[in-house]
Structure formats: C-alpha cells, structure tokens
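Protocol step 4 of 5: obtain the predicted structure for the target chain.
Materials: sequence only (see below). No template structures provided, no constraints applied. The aim of this step is simply to have a reference model before the mutagenesis design in step 5. Sequence pasted as it appears in the construct record:
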Amino acid sequence: MTIKAHAKINSFLKITGHKDGYHTLLSRFIKVPNLYDTISIVPQKCDSFTIDGFEDIPVESNIIYKAYQEINNHIGYTHEFFLDYKIVVEKKIPSGAGLGGGSSDAGAFMRLMNEMFELNIDTPTLAQIGSKVGADVPFFIYDYSSANVSGFGEIVEPFEDDEFEIELYTPDIHCDTPLVYKTFKKYLFDDIDLDSFRGWEKLTTPEILSKADAIEANDLYKASLIAYPELKDVAPDGWYFSGSGSTFFKINNKL
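Step 4 output (structure tokens):
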C-alpha cells in the first residue's frame, strides 16, 4: 500500500490570539499538487514499529509513530501488523520549510491506516485524533485542495479557491517553527490588528495577494526575519512566504 503526502502553502497566515500556551490563527492552506512525500507499507519482519527514511530521527520522536500511537489509543489496542511490515518514506518535502511535510506524512499515514484496517473512523474524528499529533495534521486528514484553517488548526473548512499554478523557492535555511512562534510572541504579538484582515477567509487567494505584500499576508514572515535574518538576503522580490518558513512562493493564474 502506498499513499502520497502532499506539501501545502499558506497563501495567508494571520495570528488571531494566544490561549493555553498556543497561538490561534486564521490561514488559507493550499495543497501543492506536484510536491509530495511517498509513504509505503512494505513486508518485512520487524522487532518493533519500523520507519525507513528518517535515519537521523529516533522512531519514538517521529510524527508518524506518534500518529500510530494516537490511533491505537483511540481504538483501544495495538495492531501487531507492524511486526510483519515496515513503513518506508521517500522524502521530497524539505523540513523546516513551511510546507507541512511532517504533518502531511502523519495525516496521510492516518488515512492509510484507517483504510487498510477498516477502522471506520469518520473523517472529523480522525482529524480530532490528528490534532493531538500536530496543529496542521487535521488539514491533511481532510485532504482538501484548499481550506480556511482557524483556531489551533483544528477548524478546517473547505474553500473553493481560484485555479492557479504554484512556484516554490526553498533556500537552504531550516526555520524552527517553535522558535518563530516564540519570536512572534516576544516582539510582534502586541501589534495584532484583527480588523486588518477581517473577511479574508471569503476572498480568493489572488484577491488577497493583490492587496497584501509578503509581510502583510503572513504574520510569521516578520518573526522569521527576526529569528533568521539571513532570509532577507535570499527573499525573491514579489514572492510570498509560507507558514513559518523558509519557502517562498508565487502564484500564476490559469487562463
């Protein structure tokens, strides 16, 4: 069994508040059609849950393993299946790039596991389980092409956006998401103006980007520039910033 775990961009990302130690947001998540990791389940006798493709990350720290644990917690037992099979991940989505690679891997794996074992977990419930793994995971469980995401990431509402092509540029800079959020809280949180982006969730991505520059479109861009000043030297003119970085993107409307 094999499944594709697609990257995403945030065409806009606005911080809306802070609660229980976490930031809340309003963002437009868009699936990137031509960039994805591939997750395969391959026969192999294993002493324990095994993941190939992340040799520098202990299995216990891997987000796919965390997703596996949360599903087991939900169903109330552990599948012995993964003593006869291993997970193989072919990584194409760079880490620390604001493209949701780890969350996408977790979400795709949870969808695959739900299908393979006929667990019959409905999508909203699976997304709720996924939210315990990571804030972006619910979007990848719903597997929408485009959606407005709010709250802590657990509220995912499909949005029919305009059609456009996405170009990506990812410099060799790894942006640590917790550091970027901490930087935002320290230096920029008091500047939040909810009225400045009111109604954006009803606008198409081209409409939003026609009225906002990179700093205005993504609150985490300025925080990333503070945390990683070298981004200033590689930022292409007129491109936008995805998530907590370090990927820049632009869109080309389809006629």
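Step 4 remarks: The chain has a mean pLDDT of 95. Residues 164-253 form one domain.
Proceed to step 5.
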